[in-house]
């Protein structure tokens, strides 16, 4: 990555006229495939009334960032500062700013925030259909906000020493019992998985089958277990990810690199469930062919939730007579998450902070190693990569 500027990031100071400034370092994705490390001195007097500046503690590198790097998402306003989930300490705020519980924020508070900055609350989708995750005005920090590394108001992404939170950003103070690195082990996959749980409507003792052992698949399996599932089976790969899945108390895993034929996997699941198959099947793979397999894994009248097809990976052939109509299957899509999922996700992580989350977060990268972090995530070399600015 090209490095620009000769100032030390993280420095702060005051100008002769009393203006506060900070030295910022951030990674800017100029276009698909192009990252640049950018340094600049930013004046805090440009902050808007009701806004907050966070000093970043940890930022996530997730599959979405890999998609952004390859230009696979529509309508991304490059250049952007990637990173849509992060934790930081309040460095500055202007005017009266409160967290979602109504408590005023103060300098030094460790907080996180909802990455969705805007839904319009005035369109048909928001008001009548009540599908705010599909609002056309939805703007997400680190994904659909253009970056300007030279203006404090342009620090709209987490791969940065400082993050600007515009007025009305929904801020949550991290509970004392929740260390930032544990919260980030849940990260962006947690609200997505929680939304999938809501869609799945799991009942006590349900048999739940999760396709995929990435962050969303792992979290869906953990949440299913804590939602009262009697049996959770995770179908995925590679083996090191399935070992992490098992460390969270999920007893049954099927390795797709060892059992390569879907009909063999169906036989295995049939045996494991004593011929009953899944009351609920959750797809978290991103692979279109998994959908045909997932429908086959549902019992008669079972529920199938598709949450992993975040980008367009093509078509797949499905026999609707056998797999949908005759099976009487309930099939649901699941797009994004809203504040209720995020808020409950923070509460879940605080209550279950004793689980072995350290197995999920194995490597913390510096900003200058962002490209390396991206390729590790893309190649499934580690479960989750984080960035800690200033290291
Ligand atoms: Zn709307
Ligand atoms: Zn993400």
Order of helices and strands: EEEEEHEEEHEEEHHEHEHEHEHEHEHEHE
Structural class: alpha/beta
What is the CATH architecture annotation of the largest domain? Answer: Alpha-Beta Complex
In total, the number of domains comes to: 2
Which class of the largest domain in CATH terms? Alpha Beta
Strand content: 25-35%
Distance between the termini: 16 Å
Number of strands: 19
Description:
It is a single chain. With 391 residues, the chain is an alpha/beta fold. It has 2 domains: 211 residues, Quinone Oxidoreductase, Chain A, domain 1, CATH 3.90.180.10; 145 residues, NAD(P)-binding Rossmann-like Domain (Rossmann fold, 3-Layer(aba) Sandwich), CATH 3.40.50.720. It has 11 helices and 19 strands. The strands form 4 sheets. Strands 5, 6, 7, 10, 11, 18 and 19 form a 7-stranded mixed beta sheet that branches. A 6-stranded parallel beta sheet has the order 14-13-12-15-16-17, with helices on both faces. A 4-stranded mixed beta sheet has the order 1-4-3-2, with no helix packed on it. Helix 8 links the parallel strand 15 and strand 16. It is elongated and about 75 Å long. 45% of the residues are buried. One zinc ion binds next to loops.
């Amino acid at each position: 990555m090209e490095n620009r500027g000769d100032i030390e990031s993280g420095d702060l100071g005051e100008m002769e006229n009393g203006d506060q400034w900070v030295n910022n370092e951030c990674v800017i994705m100029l276009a698909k495939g192009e990252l640049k490390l950018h340094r600049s001195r930013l004046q805090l007097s440009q902050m808007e009334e009701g806004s907050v500046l966070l000093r970043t503690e940890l930022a996530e590198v997730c599959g979405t960032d890999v998609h952004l790097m390859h230009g696979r998402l529509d309508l991304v306003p490059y250049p952007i500062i990637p990173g849509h989930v992060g934790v930081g300490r309040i460095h500055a705020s202007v005017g009266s700013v409160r967290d979602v519980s109504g408590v005023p924020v103060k300098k030094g508070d460790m907080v996180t925030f909802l990455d969705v900055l805007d839904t319009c609350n005035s369109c048909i989708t928001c008001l009548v259909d009540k599908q705010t995750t599909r609002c056309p005005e939805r703007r997400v920090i680190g994904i659909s906000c253009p970056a300007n590394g030279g203006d404090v108001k342009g620090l709209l992404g987490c791969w940065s020493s400082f993050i600007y939170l515009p007025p009305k950003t929904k801020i949550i103070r991290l509970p004392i019992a929740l260390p930032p690195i544990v919260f980030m082990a849940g990260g962006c996959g947690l609200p997505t998985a929680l939304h999938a749980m809501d869609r799945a409507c799991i009942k006590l003792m349900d048999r739940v089958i999760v396709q995929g052992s990435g962050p969303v698949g792992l979290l869906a399996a953990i949440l299913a277990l804590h939602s009262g599932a009697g049996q959770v089976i995770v179908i995925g790969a590679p083996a090191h990810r399935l070992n992490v899945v098992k460390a969270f108390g999920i007893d049954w895993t099927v390795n797709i690199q060892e059992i390569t034929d879907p009909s063999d996997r169906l036989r295995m699941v049939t045996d494991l469930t004593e011929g009953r198959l899944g009351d609920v099947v959750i797809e978290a793979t991103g692979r279109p062919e998994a959908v045909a397999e997932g429908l086959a894994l549902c019992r008669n009248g079972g529920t199938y939730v598709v949450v992993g097809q975040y980008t367009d990976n093509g078509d797949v052939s499905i026999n609707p007579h056998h797999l949908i109509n005759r099976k009487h299957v309930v099939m649901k899509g699941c797009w994004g998450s809203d504040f209720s999922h995020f808020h409950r996700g923070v509460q879940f992580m605080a209550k279950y902070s004793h689980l072995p989350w350290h197995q999920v977060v194995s490597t913390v990268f510096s900003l200058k190693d962002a490209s390396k972090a991206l390729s590790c995530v893309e190649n499934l070399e580690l479960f989750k990569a984080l960035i800690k600015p200033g290291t």
